[in-house]
Specification:
The protein has about 475 residues and is α/β, with parallel strands linked by helices. It has two domains: about 260 residues, Aldehyde Dehydrogenase, Chain A, domain 1; about 190 residues, Aldehyde Dehydrogenase, Chain A, domain 2 (3-Layer(aba) Sandwich), CATH 3.40.309. The strands form five sheets. Strands 14-15-16-13-12-17-18 form a seven-stranded mixed sheet, with helices on both faces. Strands 9-8-7-10-11-19 form a six-stranded mixed sheet, with helices on both faces. It has a three-stranded antiparallel sheet with strand order 5-6-20, with no helix packed on it. Helix 6 links the parallel strand 8 and strand 9. The longest helix has 22 residues. It is globular and about 80 Å long. The N terminus is likely disordered.
Length: about 475
């Protein structure tokens, strides 16, 4: 690994409550750890119940104003936020690498993509329209009005501290909602920098409140609070189910973007070299800590050997190191518990008969670095074949029957992203219909653009955080019928 000598000041992290950046009311905080060095680089404030109540009162007050703000004015503020975020991408990317570990080029690209998302939602917010329904009798007008649903409680994870938060903020704000964001405690500063782009662009006080703290305490308080009208969560399936259940008991709608276990079907007619190159890049990006990462590779027997050779060669060539080094292609996993999970999953798979074709071990003894790993002949009973690895571990098995390949792809209750590689348009269309997932990408990695849907089915969640569908969750339809008596 290459050391990087550039000195970067990690900023103070504050809560944003009622338009004021400040520490927790009782001064409590927790450490922020650099995963490449295991050193404490800063502190994150831990919100109290009093802080949360102030945030709720602020968001309630702001909603009465923001919901009446003209869509064009909301659009102008959001466009300003997008410009500020884009201009700050280099600085924010460096901060993100310090606290999350990903290569700085990937971090800066995430921030730039965040600006793109804000701009897209700003434009889409201007297109929210009402409609007239032709009446059956004279003198009757029938209208459908789309109103903002109200204050939103949103919860975002550490793996993409800007990308995940920006989708929730942008959709809510564009629709006329206010939002309380529970940001990630592991990666708080880059998330705060995103929020600052909105406030610096002129977003009124209270439209966004940002808190950190005890996740279960914050979620319980906000979801149950009568002011909060909607819940949006990105994270694990287990936690998502708990929060969805809590929201359901309050009759509050949810958007849930949860875990995945991305199956990849590589048919006998696939372009092997192209598939291996694309999939290797997608698997190990962000050290595999991506909910849509390709994970279970189901390769046709006829091309198993050449695909495995090309994929393993690609995995072994990845340069692992401190994300601040411009030559680094994969940084550390984000924290010690992910490192322990990788070691456990690999050991369990090997104990059950899997073979290690590449990697499989921690790198060094300082920093949470784990080798890009390829396991082959992995039995279905291995934990990695049933639990989302969420790390740099690829599972490659083979099969000679396409129906069996589909059955394996659909075996798990997850349904986020699935992938297919084939030269046959007929097979591509057929598998697109048969695979059970919210997103299916064929012969390329085409997910996550602002204008396309982003969401899963079954245990991978409910609702969408991309495309026109994303705004629907922040709007309610009101039907008004009027008989003119004059």
């Amino acid at each position: 690994m290459t050391n990087h000598n550039e000195q970067i000041a990690y900023p103070r992290v504050d809560l944003l409550i009622a338009g004021q950046w400040r520490q927790a009311s009782d001064g409590a905080s927790a450490p922020v750890i650099n995963p490449a060095t295991e050193e404490e680089i800063g502190r994150v404030p831990i919100a109290t119940l009093s802080d949360l109540e102030q945030a709720v009162l602020s968001t309630e007050k702001a909603f009465q104003v923001w919901r009446q703000t003209a869509p064009h004015e909301r659009y102008q503020i959001m466009k300003g936020a997008a410009r500020l975020l884009a201009a700050r991408a280099r600085e924010i990317g460096l901060i993100m690498t310090l606290e999350q570990g990903k290569p700085v080029a990937q971090a800066q690209a995430e921030v730039a993509n965040g600006a793109d998302l804000i701009e897209w939602f700003a434009e889409e917010g201007r297109r929210i329209s009402n409609r007239l329904i032709p009446a059956r009798i004279a003198n009757v007008e029938q209208r459908v009005i789309r109103d903002p649903i109200g204050p939103v409680a949103a919860f975002t994870p550490w793996n993409f501290p800007v990308n995940q938060a920006v989708r929730k903020i942008s959709a809510a704000v564009a629709a006329g909602c206010t939002i309380i964001l529970k940001g990630p405690e592991d990666t708080p500063a880059s998330c705060a920098a995103l929020v600052a782009a909105f406030t610096d662009a002129g977003l009124p006080e209270g439209v966004i409140n940002l808190v950190y703290g005890n996740p279960s305490q914050i979620s319980d308080y906000l979801i149950k609070h009568p002011v909060v009208r909607k819940v949006s969560f990105t994270g694990s399936t287990a936690v998502g189910k708990q929060l969805a259940s809590l929201a359901g008991s309050q009759m509050k709608p949810v958007t849930m973007e949860l875990g995945g276990h991305g199956p990849v079907l590589i048919l006998s007619d696939a372009d092997v070299e192209r598939a291996a190159t694309i999939l290797c890049g997608a698997k190990y990006r962000n050290a595999g800590q991506i909910c849509t990462a390709p994970t279970r590779f189901i390769v046709h027997d006829k091309i198993r050997a050449p695909f495995l050779e090309a994929f393993v060669e690609g995995a072994k060539a990845i340069r692992v190191g401190n994300g601040l080094d411009p030559e680094t292609q994969m940084g550390p996993v984000a924290h010690e518990r992910r490192l322990a999970a990788m070691e456990m999953l690999v050991a369990d798979a090997v104990a059950q008969g899997a073979k290690v074709a590449a990697g499989g071990k921690r790198i060094g003894n300082r920093g949470f670095f784990f080798e890009p790993t390829v396991l082959t002949d992995v039995p279905l009973g291995a934990r990695a074949m049933n639990e989302e690895p969420f790390g740099p571990v690829a599972l490659i098995n083979s099969c000679d029957d396409e129906d069996a390949m589909v059955a394996e792809a659909n075996r798990l209750p997850y349904g986020l992203a699935s992938y297919v590689y084939t030269r046959s348009p007929r097979k591509a269309a057929d598998l697109g219909r048969r695979l059970e997932a919210g997103m299916i990408s064929i012969n390329h990695h085409g997910l996550g653009l602002p204008e396309v849907p982003f969401g899963g089915i079954r245990d991978s969640g409910h609702g969408n955080e991309g495309g026109a569908e994303a705004l629907d969750a922040y709007l309610v339809s009101k039907y008004i019928t009027h008989y003119d008596t004059h």
